[in-house]
Amino acid sequence: MRAGASIARTGALAAGFAFLYGPILLLVIYSFNASRLVTVWGGVSTRWYAALLQDAQLIARVRISLLVAMFSALIATFNGTLAAIALVRFGRFRTRTLFAGAIYAPLVMPEVILGLSLLLLFVALGIERGFWTIVAAHATFTMCFVTVIVQSRLVNFDRALEEAAMDLGAGPVRTFTAITLPLIRPAIVAGFLLAFTLSLDDLVIASFTAGPGSTTLPMRVYSQVRLGVSPEINAISTLMLAVVGIVLLSVAALSRRRAQ
Amino acid sequence: MTSGAPLVRLDGVTKRFGAVAAVHDLSLDIAAGEFFALLGPSGCGKTTLMRLIAGFEQPDAGRVFIGNDDVTDVPPHKRPVNMMFQSYALFPHMSVEKNIAFGLKQEGMPRAEISERVAEMLRLVQLEGLGKRRPDQLSGGQKQRVALARALAKRPKLLLLDEPLAALDRKLREQTQFELKEVQRRLGTAFVVVTHDQEEASVMASRIAVMRAGKLEQIGTPAEIYARPASRFVAEFFGDINILDGDVRSERELLIAADESTGRSAATAVRPERIVVESEAAAASAGLPAIVDDLAFRGSDTLYRVRLQSGKILRVVASNSGDRNAFRPGDKVRVQIPPDACIPLSH
Amino acid sequence: MDSRWTARAHRDWLVLAIPYGWLLIFFLAPFALVLKISLSQSALRQPPYEPVFSWSDSFQSLRGKLSTLSLDSFGGLLSDSLYLESYISSVLVAAVSTIVTLLVAYPFALAIARSSPKIRPILLGLAIAPFWTSFLIRVYAWIAILKDEGLLNHFLLSIGVIDAPLGIFATNTAIVIGIVYSYLPFMLLPLYAAIEGQDPALLEAAADLGASPWRAFSRITLPLSARGIVAGSLLVFIPAVGEFVIPDLLGGSDTLMIGRTLWNDFFLNRDWPTASAAAIVLLILLVGPLLVYERVQLREERQRA
Asked: With an 8 Å Cβ cutoff, are A174 and B106 in contact?
């Protein structure tokens, strides 16, 4: 009976991971395909990677995407953490439901609605679309993810630790910086990474709120994808996967080491 | 017992949570250097009272004084009171030393002095050598000592202890009870223990306040409360007790046999160990007839449940000193109550 | 009482005001704008609509303006079968996708939750890791797999299972596969949390009382995970209705989804009022599920507080 259950379990896991990683593995493999066609294997080649490195425009897009992600994630983490504190610590206040609703809604709202509404805002205010409009837009929709992550950590936070700090003479601000903040830091960092990734990855909202000189990497990839499958995109994808993989692994290794 | 101005004075303090008053118009004095206990069942308001003294709650009415200062509006980080938390609340991201030093850092004490004081505290709680460890590397008992050391590091005038022995097993509990007494005696700090365990309170404290539903039922030394409980509640809460209501015939006989004068009260309380029980044969028809219903062997003594002819069950404790024959269920016995064992209860 | 509370009140006010202010400006106000623009007329100018209200309006002229409010855009929507079909199709596709995602994610979540505690976080991390890579790229990968000259057809043809390409690409089926693949973590995480949080002793008690493993699952594990199922389903369904990228890349000319229709109206036809009206109607469509979602979230929150 037990053996049967564990076989089923292994089967489910194998199927799940195959489904998840299959397409990704295929992408990586074919980025080294010398032939343009997916169905023809032309031998291993890195020519598509070489072509990438020569594409100055592409590299500019990557730079913009990284900068947008950095700035928007910083703003989102700041706002999101404050919002989490307000939600968890402030109990009932007037218009709390509206506030909480405004926090949770962007998590599920279709991106076309978010993008459209933000564009209309910029137009109505007479703000030129450009780099900072994307930053503001991304900061808005990713802040909610940060709030959710920090909030769940705060809710499980032992208030007795803060009371002990105050009992020992630390004022409210001191207590926050010396006790609360260090202990919720992992959640804040996780929130930042998530906001960064979401921004890096976003197509729809960026399309609505970007200006002429500030197209992001996903926008560029999208316009190329519409023209069809091509190995250059495979190469870009593999590179991005590699970067993300390295970042994730190092984060995991760091947190493993700190735990010891 | 208490001389001079009190260290802590609560004056008509009330604290409400929603519609319920956790503490109701309560006034209390605690003297400097005494070991005081707040005792009561869960929900009686003792924890709220402690938090009012520490400053984590603000009273809805009444004032709180520490020393000569009205501290009602003073936040906890400015009060000369420290607390040992029930969950210990050790800072997980700091070593034992850093934990103990935390309060001293807030005062702005110079680093050299801090090291000295921390070492002194570690010696006091017998944890020398464990300074660099982190809380998750300590046993439960060790964590508690760190919590104690941390709370005492600032040499507060008053230390509040929130159910300090609740998480410990019996042997450790006993040992810790005596150690806490010793520390308190040595330092001369006033200790206020909050507990629901009457034994704990009696062993450690020199004065106990029994609380119920937000009000004080009785204040006194353990011996006073035990021998002369002020109410039925205190009699039942504080130690094992038999309550005799005046109007049951066989009980009245019991009282008449004891002493006419005590029959005047609405109810009478008798401690189980004061009731004399003898076998039918040995009693020679003195006392009331009864049958042993059940018994619980407790090592140094035995608790008997003895049924009178009226059906009333008395709890009787007899020590097992070896020369007595133990009774068994079904044995016929006779019970007597000495007159001075009767405690009149007014309510 | 006062000096202590004033300092604290100022501090607290600031902590709340900053995020609240940001959301007011960048989330709540834009919605009001979408509503306003949906009520105006399309025009050949930049931006392509006649503003009905402007900052300089006085209160009297406001009343006059109200009479010129045009519901043309909304009327246009209702009479346009394209939009009607788009809405219906979107809801259907999203619903099917949600169900399929649930069916795929549940065994997976169960398997991870039942694994030994040591490897659980690793498995979970591995399951979530693809989410950290580009969404666009992962959808793109499916193009290469599903199209007629793609890997799946090539593989099946070569081993003789089929005679002609399956023709999955550019159909609703491809869209469903894309949604399931992309939104899997949103279903997986709440499910996993709901299953993992159950006391293992419950199943032991059930077995002790004579229940077969299937019975124990269907009577205990499944019902207790209801909260996770609801949360996960909402997290997939609501955004899926308005999805743009997946229908655009994996769908064809005859797959209609509202996200795409809206996009085309906005960027290709330059018809902002209609696009705004479509967005409003989409929001109205989603109000039901959105309210359920908010209720669930707020209830969770209140329980924890």
From this structure: yes
Q: CB contact, 8 Å: A157 with chain B?
A: no
Chains that touch B (3 or more CB pairs under 8 A): A, C
For an interface test with C, the pick among A62, A94, A113 (most C C-beta atoms closer than 10 Å) comes out as A113
Residue C149 DSSP class: T
Please compute, for residue C255, the number of CA atoms within 13 A of its CA located in the half-sphere on the CB side.
26
Of B50, B75, B59, the closest CA to residue B15 belongs to B59
Enter the tokens of residue B98.
Answer: 């850093």
| Residue C49 DSSP symbol | E
Non-local (6+) Cβ contacts of B292 within 8 A are: B304, B305, B306, B307, B327, B328, B329, B330, B331, B333
Contact state of B85 with A164 under an 8 Å Cβ cutoff: yes
Per the CB < 8 A criterion, the answer to whether A121 and C33 are in contact is yes
ipTM > 0.90 for the complex: no
Domain ranges in chain C? 81-256
User: Which positions of chain C have pLDDT values less than 50?
Assistant: 1-3, 44-45, 55-61, 63, 67
Q: Give whole-number Cα distances, C294 to A214, C241, C298, in Å.
A: 35, 17, 6
Neighbours of chain A (3+ CB pairs under 8 A): B, C
Please name the member of B89, B107, B151 whose beta carbon is closest to the beta carbon of A161.
B89
Distance CA(A146)–CA(A187), nearest Å, equals: 8
Instruction: Quick: pLDDT tens for B88-144.
Output: 999 999 999 999 999 999 989 999 999 999 999 999 999 999 999 999 999 988 999
A88-99 tens-digit pLDDT = 888 777 788 888
Mean pLDDT of chain B: 87
Confidence of residue B195 (pLDDT cuts 50, 70, 90): very high
Q: Tell me the per-residue pLDDT of A100-122, one tens digit each, with 9 for 90 and over.
A: 888 888 888 888 899 999 988 89
In CATH terms, the fold of domain C81-256 is MetI-like fold (1.10.3720)
pLDDT for A259? 59
Candidates B53, B71, B102: best to mutate against A (most CBs of A within 10 A) is: B102
Residue of C nearest to B72 (CA): C1
A7 in contact with C, Cβ within 8 Å: no
**Which strand (E) or helix (H) includes residue A116?**
helix A111-124
Scanning every residue of chain B, which has its alpha carbon at the shortest distance from the alpha carbon of A179? Answer: B91
Q: CB distance A86–C16 less than 8 Å?
A: yes
SS3 string, chain B, reads CCCCCCCEEEEEEEEEECCEEEEEEEEEEECCCCEEEEECCCCCCHHHHHHHHHCCCCCCEEEEEECCEECCCCCHHHCCEEEECCCCCCCCCCCHHHHHHHHHHHHCCCHHHHHHHHHHHHHHCCCCCCCCCCHHHCCHHHHHHHHHHHHHCCCCCEEEEECCCCCCCHHHHHHHHHHHHHHHHHHCCEEEEEECCHHHHHHHCCEEEEEECCEEEEEECHHHHHHCCCCHHHHHHCCCCEEEECCCHHHHHHHHHHCHHHHHCCEEEECHHHCEEEEHHHHCCCCEEEEEEEEEECCCEEEEEEEECCCCEEEEEEECCCCCCCCCCCCEEEEECCHHHEEEECC
Q: How far away is chain A from the Cα of C144, in angstroms, using its nearest Cα? A: 7
CATH pick for A55-259 out of 2.40.30.170, 1.10.3720.10, 3.10.170.10, 3.40.50.880:
1.10.3720.10
Whether B73 and chain C come into contact, CB under 8 Å, resolves to yes
Which alpha helices (DSSP H) does chain C contain, by range?
2-23, 29-38, 59-68, 72-79, 81-114, 120-132, 135-146, 151-158, 172-196, 200-208, 213-216, 222-224, 226-241, 245-250, 258-263, 272-304
Distance from CA of C6 to the nearest CA of B (A): 13
